[in-house]
Amino acid sequence: MRVFKYVGLLLTLISFNISSFAQSSPPVITDTLHITLDSAQNMFTRNNLLLLAQRYNIDVQKAFIQQARLYNNPNLAFAKGFYNNVSKKYFAKGYGDEGGETSTQVSQLIILAGKRNKQIKIAQANTRLSEEQFFDLLRTLKYALRTAFFNIYYLKESARVYNEEIGGLNNVVKAFNEQRDKNYISEKEIVRVKAQLYSLLNEYNDLVNRINDNQSQLRLILQTKPNTYLVPTIDTSKLALLDPVKYPYASLLDSAYQNRTDLRIARVATDISKLNYNYQKALAIPDVTLSFGYDKQGSYIKDFNSLGFSIDVPIFNRNQGNIKAARSNIKVNETTQKSVEATVEENIYRALQKAIDADKLYKNIEPPFSGDFDRLSREVLSNYQKRNLGLLDFLDFYDAYKQNVLQLNYILYNRLQTLEDINFYTGTNFFN
Hints:
Blueprint (H helix, E strand, L loop, with lengths): L1 H13 L3 H6 L7 E6 H11 L1 H21 L5 E6 L2 E2 L4 E2 L11 E9 L4 H66 L6 H36 L5 E6 L2 H4 L9 H11 L1 H23 L4 E8 L8 E8 L8 H44 L5 H17 L5 H36 L6
Parallel strand pairs: 1-6
Antiparallel strand pairs: 2-5, 3-4, 5-7, 7-8
C-alpha cells in the first residue's frame, strides 16, 4: 500500500494541467482555415511556386524554338588602305602606286542536309518534354496534397477520441483526488487510472506531431503562411459512394497509357533521341559558305570581283563518335520506356487489387458500429464514476473503444488512399 502511495504522489508531482494540454491549439497558430478539397486544389494551382517555376521553364524551351528558326547572319568584311608609303598619304584614293586599296567581302553560311529543320524539331520536342514534366510535377504534387488532406482529416478524427478519453479520465482523477483523503478510493486504483491517463497523453502527443507534419506539408504545397492551421472539410456521404469495381483493369490501363505523365516523358525522351540521331548524321555533311568579294587594285586586274564558296572536306571528322552515341542513346531510351510501361501495368494491377480489398473491408463494417461505441463509452464512464463498474472492466473498455476508433479511421483513410493511388497511377481523376 505504501508503494502505491509513493507512486501516486510521484505522479501527482510530475502532473501538469492535463485538460489544457489535451484541448489547447498550437501556440503559434494565428489563423485557422477551413478548406474543402476543391478549394485546396484551386489554391495549389494558383500559388505553388514549383509549378510556377516549371511554367517558366516551358517558356524557356519555347524561346529555343524561336531561336532555332533563325537563319545565320551574313558576314561582311571591309578593308581600306590606311597609309601609302609612296604618296605619303593616309587613306589615299585613285589607282596606281599612289592610289589607295579597298576590298570588300560578303559571305553567307548555307546550312545543308536539313540541319535547321532538325534543330527546330528537337527544340519542339524539348518543349513537349518540359510540358510533360510540368504535368508530371502537377500530378505528383496533387497526389501529395490529397494524401495530406485526407490524412489530416482522419488523424484529427482520431485526436478527437483522445481528447474525449483524456477529458473523461481527467475528471475521474480529479474526483478521485477529492475522495482519496476520505478513503473512498484505494491508492492502487488512483495510480492505475493516472498511468492510463499518462499513456493516453503520450499517444496523443505523437498523434499531434503526425498531424502537424502533414499540416506542414500541406502548407508548403498550398503556399500558405506558416501560422495557418488548415482544417479539412469532407463530405463523407459522397466518399461512401466511391466504388473501385466500377472501373475494370483494362479501362484503367488504357487511361494510364494515354495520360500517365512519366510514360509520356519516356516516350518524348525516345523521340528526342531519334531526332538527335538524325541531326548527328546531318552534321556529318559539311555546310557551304557562299561569298562575294570586291578588290579595288590588289588583284591581277583593277576592280576585281569574285564569287566563290568554301566547304570543309569530310576526310577525318565525319561525326562518327556522336552518331554512334546517338544510336546507342535511342536503345537506352527505348529500354527505359519499356521499363516504365511494365511499371505502369504492375502499378495499376496492384492498386486496383488493394482498392478492392480496402473497399470490401470498409463495406463489412456495420454502419451503427462506431455510433454504438460512442454511446457506450459515455455510459461506461458514467457507471464507473458511480462505482457500478470495476476498474479493469472500465480500462479495458476504454482501450477497446480507442482501438476501435483508430482502426476505423485507418480503414476509412486507407480506402481513400488506395483510390488516390489509382488516380495517381492512371493520371486520371476517376475518384474525386
